[in-house]
Structures are given as structure tokens and as C-alpha cells.
Predict the 3D structure of the following.
Amino acid sequence: MVDAAVDIRGLAARLAAVGLAVPIVACSTKSDARTAVAAVHAGAREYIPLPPEAEVIATVLAAVADDGQSPSSPAGDGSEGAAEDRSEVARVAHAALAAGAVTHSLVGRTVADVERDLILETLKRCLGNRTRAAGILGISVRTLRNKLTVYAAEGIDVPPPNNGEIRGAA
């Protein structure tokens, strides 16, 4: 485990230069998605926001250590099931860490800002289809259109309906 502020790419290169194939798990008290993504892009296998529970750290480290290794026990002794159980626990732990990082990234933001980002991201993923986006968001199309009108008036880029152009900001 290393601090995400460390030069992870350089560390990985130095480890490889001396023939060590050690998985790197980055950690930081910064719980934003940018820190996690930067650490993973630099070569970390996983990212853990601090302070996590000891059980979460143990599970992630066990999963990283088991990555790419197949069970070495003979077939039929139950080890495959144990490996699958560890893999499932690792996936759950990873999902919990990701959810924690997302939650921490929301702290300090206003509900209006979070709502705006959610609406605009949903609309982008629906390729501008207002009806589909409103259905996913659980709001009426009229409410969605009213919010988009306000966003466009504030100069925020709003995906247009189904044609790929941006209207609003100049």
C-alpha cells in the first residue's frame, strides 16, 4: 500500500527494474474520484480511500494478491468454491469502496449541483432523449425540460434533443 501522492508510475517502474512483480494499492485521505482514477491510471491495481475499516483493507489486499492466480489445489477438493467466494467478497468490497468514494465526493456540494450533474449526465447517456432521461430520473418530461431551460439560461451546456449539438453556452 502506498500513498496516492507518491509517484506510482515511477515506483512501478523501479519495482519492475529489480524484477519485483508487486501489486500496488494506492490509498489517500482524499476520497474523490479523480484521485482514485489518477492512481489506477498510474499503475495502482486498486485504490482505497482512508480511513477504511481493517476488514475492507484485508479483503482488498487478499483480492489483489489472488489476482491472476488460479487455485493450485487439485480439482474436487472444494478449493474452487473457496476461490469463488474470495472473488465474490473482493467484488463486494470493491463496490463498497467505490460507493464510499462516490459518497465522499458528494460531501460539500449543494443538492442543486448534484442534481444538475445527474440530470445532464443522464441526458448525455440517453443521447439527448428527454423522455428516456426523465423516465430514468423518475421525473416528468415537463420537469426535465423546465430544469434544462434554467440550465441553458445560466450558460450551462445542455445536450440538445437527439442531434448531438450543444445549446446554451456560447
User: Anything to note?
Assistant: The helical segments are 8-17, 33-42, 54-66, 79-106, 111-125, 130-137, 141-153. The chain has seven helices and three strands.
